[in-house]
Amino acid sequence: MIGFGNISATVVFLPVALVLVAVFGLGIGFVVSIFNARYRDTEHLVGIVLSVTFFLIPIVFTPDLVPEEAYGLPVRRMMELNPLNAIVAVSRDAVYFLEVPSLSRLATAAGWAAGSFGLGLLYFRRRSMQISEEP
Q1: What is the pLDDT of residue 1?
Q2: What is the pTM of this model?
Q3: Comparing C-alpha atoms, which of 87, 81, 78, 76 is closest to residue 111?
C-alpha cells in the first residue's frame, strides 16, 4: 500500500458503487434496447442524452461548488435530482474524501439502482416478445 499513497479502508465501498452503477445501467439498458429495436434513431438520441447527463453529474467536484441558478435554470437542483449523483457520491466519499458513505446515501443509491433495474426488467419482459414477433 505504500506505493499507492492515499488509500484508506473505505476503498471497500468502491466495488459497492460499481455494482450499483452497473445495476442502474442495466435497468436503463433494458428500456433503451426495446426502444432501439423499435425506433432506430434511439441510438443517436442516447448519445445526446449521455452528453448532457455527463455535465449534470458532479464527478470530480462537490455540488456545493455549483451555483443555485445559472442562466435562469436551477442547476444545483437538477444535479441533486440526477439518480447517478447518489451513486457517484458514494464512490466520491469512499475514494476521494476517505469517509464511509452515510447509510442514507447508500440507501438512496441502492434504491435508484434497484428501481431502475426492476422497472427496466419489467418493461423488457413485457415488450421483448412483441419486438421478436414483428416482421
Answers
A1: 44
A2: 0.83
A3: 87
